[in-house]
Design goal:
The protein is α/β, with parallel strands linked by helices and 117 residues long. The protein has a single domain, classed as Transcription Regulator spoIIAA (2-Layer Sandwich). It contains 4 helices and 7 strands; from the N terminus they run E-E-E-H-E-E-H-E-H-E-H. The strands form 2 sheets. The protein has a 5-stranded mixed β-sheet with strand order 1-2-4-6-7, with helices on both faces. Strand 1 and strand 2 form a beta hairpin. The longest helix has 17 residues. The chain is globular, with a radius of gyration of 13 Å. The termini are far apart. The mean pLDDT is 94.
């Protein structure tokens, strides 16, 4: 396993994953999704916020695992949101039309409040 480029915090059923790297690779996303799946399966987490504040580039290999995780969440009525996305990252989600699938928020607090409510 590579050095993790994320930090995960859980409060009740809400998990906030703070990405700490500038570039988000497919490998990092796969590792993150595995950890989030564990939180969903073993720690009863239902709501996930990815804090993308430091991310400047998202590899296209990240999209597949993220969509699969979203589908897994739908089976347990969970939700996922993205927060603090820089314009480059927002553009990727708009071009791929994933901005209609993944809720995007200005900050983590707003994302947490919206997806739980």
């Amino acid at each position: 396993m590579l050095t993790e480029s994320f930090e995960i915090e859980q409060t009740n059923k809400v998990v906030v994953a703070r990405l700490t790297g500038k570039d988000l690779s497919g490998q990092t996303m796969q590792e993150l999704i595995e950890r989030l799946n564990d939180k969903m399966r073993y720690d009863n987490a239902l709501y996930f916020v990815l804090d993308m504040k430091t991310v400047q580039f998202v590899a296209s290999a990240c999209i597949g695992p993220l969509v699969v995780f979203l589908q897994d969440l739908e089976h347990v009525r969970g939700r996922i949101a993205l927060a603090n996305c820089v314009p480059n990252v927002q553009f990727l989600f708009k071009v791929t039309r994933l901005d209609t699938v993944f809720a995007m928020y200005e900050d983590v607090e707003e994302a947490c409040a919206e997806i739980v409510g």
